[in-house]
Amino acid sequence: MSTPRVLPADRGVAEAAAVLRAGGLVALPTETVYGLGANALDAPAVARIFAAKARPSFDPLISHLAEAAELEKLVGTVPAAVAELAERFWPGPLTLIVDRPAVIPPIVTSGLETMAVRVPDHAATRGLIAAAGVPVAAPSANRFGQLSPTRAEHVVAGLGAAVDVVLDGGPTRCGIESTIVDARGDRPVVLRLGALPVELLQEAVGPVLVRAGSSGQPVAPGTLAAHYAPRTRLRLATDTDPADGGVSRQGFLGFRGCPAGDWAAVEVLSSKGDLTEAAARLFDALHRLDGAGVDEILVESVPEVGVGRAINDRLRRAAATWT
Ligand code: TXA
Ligand code: MG
């Protein structure tokens, strides 16, 4: 497999912007995970994203802006609660739902009359979007259903030459995708748990509903029950583990540590028990365990508070692929 051009994020912006304007694909760092970006106004370029990821056409993309001030220029006046959340949390790991303006082609939103939009908290990528002069549609830069990329190396290994340029900004700071909120109605609704904790949202705007991860039809179309999965079988650890006859080589993903056992590979997310650090390391640790040649990865859930809720959400979906 041939490889894409990898450029350092601070020096590659002008070249990457030219690629976007020419209809190409640029993998870009954000504070959450790497995105696979294309000019959101260019339907054929956006179609290349779906092809590169083998992403089903029913799963809409998030459009990225350089500045919060660009939102009203793109979509006109937005509901007060949406404007308030944008003002409070952008740039940052919060995606908001707004009405789709006519300039955004329906392929971006999978035909929905709403669109998802955010301003990522990453200087080079905001510079890139500003230099390209267009909104940038970008899903996570992995093949559909697989582990999200938190390093440029993950993107190169997963997508290869399907990407024209990879901007390498090093490991991403948050390590987990943005929180998606629909604040157009009476009460904001969280559609996907993510790097911005629900508790912080509630401090800012009062009570919110969490509809992410409930059973039945997913509200954010991409939040399928089985997602974010390594190639290796993955299972949530229970109190009766680790003794598991028949499984010869097991890997363990622990929060603060690891139970005694004959593990073939071990990753610990945060020995000091810090959930933010754990989120930042989650996908990288899973990528490493996936490459460790084990038969099964056993994972431990983390405390169900703050960003821990989003971590557990990712672990449950990864495990659901194998059940
Ligand atoms: O942190 C992130 O959000 C990263 C970085 C690159 O910005 N992007 C990301 O994109 O996670 P992706 O494509 O992996 O996930 C986008 C999610 C999907 O679950 C999709 O269904 C949902 O956003 N979504 C997009 N448009 C939507 C809409 N109009 N209504 C509801 N959900 C929407
Ligand atoms: Mg994704």
UniProtKB/TrEMBL annotation:
| Positions of ATP binding | 55, 114, 118, 140, 148, 192, 228
Q: What class of enzyme is it?
A: transferase
Domain (YrdC-like): give its ranges: 10-196
Listed under GO cellular component are: cytoplasm
- List, in alphabetical order, the GO biological process terms annotated in this UniProt record: regulation of translational fidelity; tRNA processing
Q: At the top level of its lineage, which domain of life is listed?
A: Bacteria
Any keyword Glycoprotein?
A: no
Q: Which UniProt keywords apply?
A: ATP-binding, Cytoplasm, Nucleotide-binding, Nucleotidyltransferase, Transferase, tRNA processing
In its UniProt record, a GO molecular function of this protein is: ATP binding
Q: Which reaction does it catalyse?
A: L-threonine + hydrogencarbonate + ATP = L-threonylcarbamoyladenylate + diphosphate + H2O
Give the UniProt subcellular location, in the record's own words: Cytoplasm
InterPro entries documented for this protein: DHBP_synth_RibB-like_a/b_dom, Sua5-like_dom, Sua5/YwlC_C, Sua5_C, T(6)A37_SUA5, TC-AMP_synthase_SUA5
Q: Which residues bind L-threonine?
A: 32, 64, 138, 178
Secreted listed as a keyword? no
The EC designation for this entry is 2.7.7.87
Mention any Pfam family matching this sequence: Sua5_yciO_yrdC
Q: Which NCBIfam families does the UniProt record give? A: L-threonylcarbamoyladenylate synthase (TIGR00057)
Q: What does this protein do?
A: Required for the formation of a threonylcarbamoyl group on adenosine at position 37 (t(6)A37) in tRNAs that read codons beginning with adenine.
UniProt similarity note: Belongs to the SUA5 family.
Spell out the protein name for this chain. Answer: Threonylcarbamoyl-AMP synthase
Organism whose genome encodes this protein:
Salinispora tropica (strain ATCC BAA-916 / DSM 44818 / JCM 13857 / NBRC 105044 / CNB-440)
